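Onboarding guide, step 5: your first structure request.
Type a short instruction followed by the sequence, for example:

Predict the 3D structure of this protein.
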Amino acid sequence: MKTIFRKLLLLIFPFTLSLPLIPLNISSIALGLFCLGAIINEKPSVKRKVKDSFLVLFLLFFLSDTLSNLLRLDFNSHFFREIKLSFLIFPIIFIAYSKTIIENFKPICYSFVFGVLVYVIYSWWFVYDFYYITNRGYRLFSLTDGYIRYMLYNYLPGAIHHSYIGIYIVFSISLILHDIITLKKRIIIKSLLLLILFVSLFFIGSKFSIIMLIFFIFSYLLILKKWIVNFIFIASSLSGLYLIKMWILGVGLNSSFYSRIEYYKCCIIIIKNNFISGVGAGNLSKASSLLCDNDILIPHNIYLRSFAENGILGFLILVAISFYLIKHSLKSKDYLYLNIVLLLILGGLIEDFIFLQRGVLFFMLFLSLFYVKNKYNTLQQI
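The system replies with structure tokens like these:
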């Protein structure tokens, strides 16, 4: 009974992470239950917690706002933000209680996958309701004009931004495909889940998530020499891209690419003027108003944002984290671990993933999970 209760506590958080209509404060409560499930009846390993490089690097990132403020002798800006608590909590809990975490590795992953599946099914139900029930005759249903993505983002109750649900779907597809190939169990059920998520990505996810999925799966199947499967995958991907070409080349490109260029230019101006210590947490829009005549600045780049807010030190800490994760994931030879790392590093070039709660919780959950699985796993197979 205790084991079942502990597992339930561990599975609530990953399942609710991508659910619609779940307030982020509820996700925080679910995270607390997750931590409780990890520490029940297990003694922490203090030695691991103190010496681990993963923990040290993320601790420095957590403290980057504080260090930046001290360099500027600024006592008015935020010394740390609540959103950065995840960079401290996840490494400590996962490393100190790695045995429990590792034993529940697969259930944690698939709990998240089923949460993503619920969101996807909910989205398609809303599409059907929008076109054929609530707004019948308002607009013809089309898979090619890009309106589905626009409609979901603007009208779906509890909608998650397509950049975030996109990376959630990419990870879920990668996990299912990896299990189909390596475990060869429940192939029919997993293939059906794979098909639903794959098709949905082209109409629910972002351009970046589609590109990353094609890159990940093509490379993985190429390494495994799955020629027929790769041919089917590429043909299916090209068909999906053809269907959404109007969105990619039209509104999608104009609304994201060119606006980001302007944001990047403004960030570079701010960095040049505040190279050493940055402008401080929460002060980007104020600096943008003074230097770029722009009242709101959303950098859409974790590296530029860290540099602009916390100066050269904050930037170097983030770069050190990126290099460490790449090195460790390559050394581990774990395909899924490398996927998560690349999603963060490459996605961080176009989105503020680790400065918004949905991105922070996702990346810290799975980076920590795969890290302890590959470093502290003493079990032969999970």
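Each response can be followed by summary notes, for example: Confidence is low (pLDDT under 50) at residues 378-382.
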